[in-house]
Amino acid sequence: MTSVEATGNTLEEAKSRALGMLGVSRNAQVEFEVLEETPPRVRATLIGEEQPYVVTPQIARKTADYVDHFVRRLPLQVQAVLRHSHGRYVEVELVGRDASILVGKNGEVLDRLQFLLNNIVPRVIEPQVRVVLDGAGWRRRRTERLRNQVIAIANEVKLRGEEAVLPPMPPHERRIVHQALKDDPEVMTYSEGDEPNRYVVISPRG
C-alpha cells in the first residue's frame, strides 16, 4: 500500500493535498490518519487502487471524428486529425490553412476550444474521455517548453527549500508537470484549487 503525508491550513486542505500527491480522486479508497491537529498534518494510505480508464481505438476514432465534424462547421479551412491516445486522453490535431486562427495568441483560443470540447465530448461519446487538442504543432512545442520550465523551477525549489506555485493550467498540462517530476526524489507535486483555476504546487520532499 502507498502512503504519503501532507499538511495544510485546514484538515480538508491537508487531505486534498494528500490525494493530489497520491494522484487519485476522492472516489479512491484512501484511509486518513490525523498526525497533528495544529497545523493539520495527515497520513493518507491508498488501500484500493482505482481502475484506470483506457480509451479504445474505436472510441479514439469516434472522438476525433466528432471534433472534425465540430470544426468543419466553422467558416475556416481546417480539419481534425487523430494523433494518439493514452489512458483517458485522445490527442487530436487541427490542420489546414486556418489552423493557426484556432490556436490564437499563446494558445488562448485553442485552450478555450479544448475546454468547450471537454464539456461536450464526455456527454456524447464517453464520460471518461478527455480531448487534448493541438493546432499546427503548437501544443507539442508548448509541452516541451513546459517540461523544461518545471524542471528549472524544481531545481529552484530544491535550492531554496520553498514551495513554488505554478499558474493555473488545464488538466492535461498539470499531468505533464506531475509526470515530468514524478521520479525526482527531492520534490513532490500536487494540485489545488477548482477548475478552471486549478494549479500545481511543487514542494520539497520530506
How would you describe the overall organization of this protein?
- With 206 residues, this protein is an alpha+beta fold.
- The protein is built from five helices and nine strands.
- The strands form three sheets. The chain has a three-stranded antiparallel beta sheet.
- A hairpin with a 2-residue loop joins β4 and β5.
- The radius of gyration is 19 Å and the shape is globular.
- The two termini are 19 Å apart.
- The model has no long low-confidence stretch (mean pLDDT 88).
Q: What would a concise description of this structure say?
A:
With 206 residues, the protein is an alpha+beta fold. The chain is built from five helices and nine strands; from the N terminus they run βαββαββαβαβαββ.
Q: SSE order in H/E notation?
A: EHEEHEEHEHEHEE
Q: Please report the number of helical segments.
A: 5
The N- and C-terminal alpha carbons lie at a distance of: 19 Å
Mean pLDDT, as a whole number? 88
Shape: globular
- Gyration radius over CA: 19 Å
Q: How much of the polypeptide forms β-strand, as a percent range?
A: 25-35%
Summarize the main sheet: 3 strands, antiparallel
Strand arrangement, major sheet: 1-3-2
Decide which structural class fits the backbone. Answer: alpha+beta
Q: Low-confidence parts, pLDDT < 50 over ≥5 residues? A: none
What is the helical fraction, as a range of percent?
25-40%
Tally of DSSP β-strands:
9
Show the helix and strand layout.
Layout: E1 2-7, H1 11-22, E2 29-36, E3 41-48, H2 57-72, E4 79-86, E5 89-95, H3 108-124, E6 130-135, H4 138-160, E7 164-165, H5 171-181, E8 187-192, E9 199-204
Parallel strand pairs: 5-6
Antiparallel strand pairs: 1-3, 2-3, 4-5, 7-9, 8-9
Helix pairs in contact: 4-5
